[in-house]
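Recall that a protein's primary structure is simply its ordered list of amino acids. Everything else, from secondary elements to tertiary packing, is in principle encoded there. The following example makes that idea concrete.
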Amino acid sequence: MSSESAGSDTQAGHPGEPHAQEGLGNRLNWLRAGVLGANDGIVSVAGIVMGVAGATTERGPILIAGVAGLVAGALSMAAGEYVSVSTQRDAELSLLDQERQELEEMPEEEYDELAGLLEGKGLSPELAREVATELTEHDAFSAHAEIELGIDPDDITNPWQAALASMLAFTVGALLPTLTILLPVHHRLWVTVVAVVAALACTGWISARLGYADPRRAVLRNVAGGFFAMLVTFLVGSALGGAGVV
């Protein structure tokens, strides 16, 4: 293998590492939003349909409640994610504009600041200024954005992408308890519980893998929280149904 090829392989990183691909921030952004959306859809709508099923065995009210929860939750998730990511994007763009202006108005001060930041990361003063010089000559704006602000100018978060991912994922997740609770089987409540627990285990595992965390703890937390939500809403629905409210 030539030294040039070895250098390229080294720069590319190992497969599976966070820096292994370009645009990873945006991909992780919509993946995170998608997993969280699916998880919320499963838990929220499972709680709703289990609560209604605890009060009545008629499929009509259960279906209406499930669909209403699905639509409201999907739109709420999309709106919330859009507002959140838009705020983050606006802040990033504002910081980048400010940094661009500072580079135009006081390039020497910005160069000294970049060298100081590199020195703070452990480089010797001489090497820090040498690296700062090379980075400035190559792309001063990108260097300052990434080292000083921690922002990749080519990988700004996309609010529409996150909102769409959340809405679709919530819908997919919410469909599971909505459909299983309407199955024409005697033990449909238990079928729903099992299906929801299995789905929550999957989303917990995926979210842990995306965050490079221990999947076992994430799965346990996810399943425990979802099961508790279904149990509480079912008991509340049963109490209201027994009291003649429904």
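The CA atoms of residues 51 and 234 lie 4 Å apart. Helices lie at 3-12, 24-55, 59-105, 107-120, 125-149, 159-180, 188-210, 215-242.
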